[in-house]
């Protein structure tokens, strides 16, 4: 059970790193006291143009994942809402053009309401869950 | 809002300066033929919509992107990791580019199938073909900009094709790369071409294409013309336009889903001293050409196989470009089965070679 719960928790906390493409759980960045194993390897250490990366990084390639991982799931939920609402609008249009009623109308309402709720929850998640922590 | 209703003070003020009444009359007059192939009329508008998404997201990316070998990769990384929604904007830019080219392919083939290049629409076809070529050039130049390993080596292979042009090939290659190899100079050139040269030409060409579409209206397929029954049509405003908007909304939803669930990756930074990684592949829309060149023998009739292949593609492209002048039966209003069959063979060829490009053993 422990293994299963660990897997679920990793799946929820994990993210596919846009740097190396691996599915990872973001970890604390290397510090002077705890440097990266291959900190001197060329192309491995990120040299940011404006400011150093902050927060958690990919354990494999040290790609900064703090902001990326924090909002990703909420944005996905919001986009799912957009897709469902669009599908519901398409059903409405098809119904209008075809003059159909019945199960199509019911499906359109269910999809529309589900989509709207998903969009709303996702949007709130992006706004509230994506705020930067006070440093 | 009564101010801007027809006859209101705002409307009258604008009408006397912009001629709104004339535009309104034009919009009222414009209609779209209705028949079993009407669905294909929506592809042009959808391409235009995706091009507008490209412009909007491209401008946002420009705020952070730095076109030098030292900073390009880092600036994209900064954009993806630190800028609010930066990764999403980049993903939308990348996916809308792919979708735009996909829809453009569909638009291109649908126009060819219904022989919409017939008189008097030859110039519409030619301007559309140039826009298609420009879209591919946008894709090729944009691919290098993140300055990652895959893009670096794919661009090296892609630009080498220029060298096979007789007499001026080597010079062309040096001009394209800004030197003998793909370096920071190449990146700067590709950037300039991607954000300044190509958009300027594309906007001009797009203006001409849209003007010609407005002037000649939508083409009716030969079969529908020959049927001789009274032609049905619908007003462009609002009937067709609203349907177009629904299509755009669907495209936007697909785009958002792709960008959010399959975000664009960045990969490793380009290193010119590193060996080329295994399985270097071009973008999917160049894959059939890439795979064809791989299958050609080293020499064909004493000429390098690759050179023969590239010239065959160039001649094929030229024939398609000139098809309004070569397809005589279509110009006479007769159905041209040969062109239709050649088109089917071309589509099957592109699909099969693209499939092989992704599935065949790279060592072969």
What does this structure look like?
The complex is a heterodimer of chains A (135) and B (364). In chain A, β1 (15-16) and β2 (23-24) form a beta hairpin. In chain A, 53% of the residues lie in helices and 3% in strands. A two-stranded antiparallel ribbon of chain A has the order 1-2. Residues 39-45 of chain A have low confidence and may be disordered. Chain A is elongated, with a radius of gyration of 21 Å. By secondary structure, chain A is an all-alpha fold. Chain B is mainly alpha-helical and 364 residues long. In chain B, the strands form two sheets. Chain B has a two-stranded antiparallel ribbon. Chain B starts with 8 loop residues before the first helix and ends in a 5-residue tail after the last helix. In chain B, α3 (42-62) packs antiparallel against α5, α4 (72-81) packs across α5 (86-113) and α12 (287-295) packs antiparallel against α13 (305-321). The relative contact order of chain B is 0.13. Chain B has helices spanning 9-18, 20-29, 42-62, 72-81, 86-113, 122-144, 149-160, 169-177, 184-216, 222-227, 236-261, 287-295, 305-321, 323-326, 328-331, 337-359; strands spanning 31-34, 232-235, 299-300, 303-304.
